[in-house]
Write a structure and sequence with these properties.
With 339 residues, this protein is α+β, with helices and mostly antiparallel strands. The chain has helices spanning 3-19, 25-33, 38-45, 51-82, 101-114, 129-132, 172-181, 221-236, 288-293, 310-315, 333-336, and strands spanning 119-121, 126-128, 164-166, 186-195, 206-216, 242-249, 252-261, 277-286, 302-309. Strands 1-4-5-9-8-7-6 form a 7-stranded mixed sheet, with helices on both faces. A hairpin with a 2-residue loop joins strand 6 and strand 7. Helix 2 (25-33) runs antiparallel to helix 4 (51-82). It binds adenosine-5'-[phenylalaninyl-phosphate] (FA5). Adenosine-5'-[phenylalaninyl-phosphate] binds at residues 169, 171, 196, 198, 203-204, 207, 209, 211, 249, 252, 280-284, 305-309, 311-312.
Length: 339
């Protein structure tokens, strides 16, 4: 290349640079200063010129270099002007989750019972047949076991405590609590996951129960009924009443089912409740055989127990129209964010 042709290229590049005034810093750098950029290539070519032409081309090439640096600096300051931040604007709220409605219900149940002297305990979710059935007055092959649609763990049974099962109810905590304390008084509230082979709008394979157990001298059904009434008012609001109806459980005698009055009609009967009442679970006076299994003398001590579903108890709260408890475990945030 001749020196004249080289200087003409410098002049053309100066013109092109003027037309590229609106490009960003990275775009300018890539176009002119990249490995194959226009300025990089031109700067290398100066070595190929005749020594006299090289001297004449040096000055305009330097001018082009300065013009390029000025164009990059101008583009940089325009960009930082666009990045201007108004520090007085309110901040963006980060998305935060919240406690699952069933965990909220368990915290409320714990607060209600611990405030009248119950102790919150936790026992294994996978437990021996002995604690789940046999110590609760349900010997092997007893037909009452059929009601607890049980998941069995596939491992060799223990010679004394039998097969391992996924706990079908929190009543497994009864004899365990008697063993832990040794002597009454006992005031236990056991809240835990339970498992049954059931799945429909009111049943899930995994659900939660809360179990109350009180054992002491002179405990009667009146203490049980007083505790149910107290819970009804605390959990569902003032004026809510409890009702017990005769029933059968192997581990309580007598046994009852527990209902709470409907908050919509106050127990008179409406479209929501039909009878005026909602059933939540079972209760009764602890069977003497269960006290014996826990090493407690039934001639000296008596007790009451109750066990209800947390999901069932929670979904009956005023204002919650949850007609399918499976939604609680669907992982659907649009549903869960409402609570
Ligand atoms: C029992 O489980 C007894 N252990 C309750 C008890 C304790 C009685 C202490 C006496 C003394 P039942 O099988 O009825 O009883 O269950 C109690 C409650 O658990 C039911 O009313 C229901 O609210 C809830 N429940 C039972 N199975 C399921 C399930 N698959 N899904 C959701 N909730 C359930």
């Amino acid at each position: 290349m001749t020196g004249t042709a080289y200087i003409q290229q410098i002049q053309q590049m100066l013109l092109a640079l003027g037309a590229d005034a609106g490009l960003s810093v990275p775009a300018l750098q890539q176009k002119y200063l990249g490995a194959n950029g226009a300025f990089t290539v031109l700067a290398k070519q100066i070595a190929e010129l005749d020594p006299n032409d090289r001297k004449a081309a040096g000055r305009p090439l330097n001018e082009l270099k300065n013009a390029l640096a000025a164009a990059i600096a101008a583009a940089g300051s325009a960009e930082s002007a666009n990045d201007w931040v108004d520090l007085s604007l309110p901040g963006k709220k980060p998305a935060v989750g919240h406690i699952h409605p069933i965990s909220q219900a368990m915290a409320e149940i714990t607060r209600i019972f611990t405030s009248i002297g119950f102790t919150r305990v936790r026992y294994p979710e996978v437990d021996w047949d002995w604690y789940v059935f046999e110590s609760l007055n349900m010997p092997p092959d007893h037909p009452a076991r059929d009601e607890w649609e049980t998941f069995f763990v596939d491992r060799a049974p223990d010679s004394k405590k039998g097969q391992m099962v996924l706990t079908t109810h929190t009543s497994n905590g009864q004899v365990r609590e008697m063993e832990r304390l040794g002597e009454p008084p006992i005031r236990m509230i056991n809240i835990a996951r339970c498992y049954r082979r059931q799945q429909d709008v009111t049943h899930t394979q995994m659900f939660h129960q809360f179990e109350g157990l009180v054992v002491d001298t002179g405990i009667t059904i009146q203490h049980l009924k007083g505790t149910l009434d107290y819970f009804a008012e605390q959990f569902y609001g003032p004026g809510t009443k409890s009702r017990i109806r005769p029933f059968h459980f192997q581990f309580t005698e007598p046994s009852f089912e527990v209902d709470f009055s409907c908050h919509l009609c106050n127990g008179t009967g409406c479209k929501f409740c039909k009878s005026g009442w909602h059933e939540v679970g079972g209760c009764g006076m602890v069977h003497p055989n269960v006290l014996r299994a826990g090493g407690i003398d039934p001639d000296v001590y008596t007790g009451f127990a109750f066990g209800w579903g947390v999901e069932r108890t929670y979904t009956l709260k005023e204002g919650l129209a949850i007609d399918d408890i499976r939604l609680l475990y669907s992982g659907d945030l649009q549903f869960l964010e409402q609570f």
